[in-house]
Design goal:
Length: about 350
Amino acid sequence: MTGLKDRIKARIATEGPLSVAQYMSVCLGDPDAGYYMTREPFGSEGDFITAPEVSQMFGELIGAACLSAWQALGEPAEFQLVELGPGRGTLMADLLRMASLRPAFIKAARLNMVETSPRLREIQTATLSRGPLTPHFRNRFQDVPGGPLILVANEFFDALPIHQFVKTARGWQERQIGLSQDGELMFGVGTARLPDDAIPADLSSAPEGAIFETQPAANAIAEEIGHRIAGNGGAAILIDYGYLNTAAGDTLQALYKHAYDDVLAHPGEADLTAHVNFEALAAATVRAGAQALAPLTQGEFLLRSGLLERAGALGAGKSHSEQEAIRDAVERLAAPGQMGDLFKVLAVTNSGISFPPFDSAS
Ligand code: SAH
């Protein structure tokens, strides 16, 4: 049993059950024992491998997309380059190496890393130490200075807290974490109800026990991004594990040492994520006045961006086993059934901008 689990139990005993959102926030962000504060989650030693850690090609192709965005914006002489939740800093290092092909882009960019974990900030600083730009660290996206924006986020929104509501005979009631008779963490249902007008019409006939998720924290950030882009111009590329249309379903999951785990078993030790509702994210940016381009799957995005050509160039003159490793990485990043269709890519720009490789707004 972890210290954090004991503390969560003590808190529930005195203050009452936690919402799923409160539980996620504590497990991931507790300053002493939260997952991102204490653990080394990425890579083969950690709990999961993210796309930038699979291959340098991922960050390079996002770098190419950022160059295309900068061009579409009319090559502003100064802009805020932002990454949300940069992990080990690998994506940004690869992005900047690619973007260095256009020295004027690097000259114009002010680099902002939105990262709450002091430990990961140190790792990111080290990763970027040989790169062309010095990062400014921000606790929240709201702290990024104004001006045109080019923003990327990979597997950031899935770490933000969700609320879950369970369909019962009395309506949609908030799912909570309380204590069982013998003092263990257990799921239950609270008295808080989701207002009927917050439920999409096609869920009105969902069976009892169905679960509906909301992501107010993610949507608030998306709205702020949309607001900045609509006001000052800009482009955002948001990549995550998620779904394109609002639907019922329980997507909260724990990953512990590369295996799925009971969500309540290892607070602070297991990674907790939820799938991202891209329909809701896109709607939040549009509400703020920006345009959301039709989302692509990660596979479509990478192939349209030239993944196969980049793989060929990277493999030229390399040994057989190095070429094999590059082929494996292409499969892993872009093949259906792997990251290629599970991950989605949403692009947001100010209206009237065309942003290849995304389709223009119709
Ligand atoms: N983008 C990286 C890492 C994804 S993990 C990659 O693809 O490898 C999620 C990242 O978001 C971590 O860096 C974590 O510390 C950060 N993070 C989680 N919640 C956050 C929050 N509320 N504000 C800022 N950063 C957060």
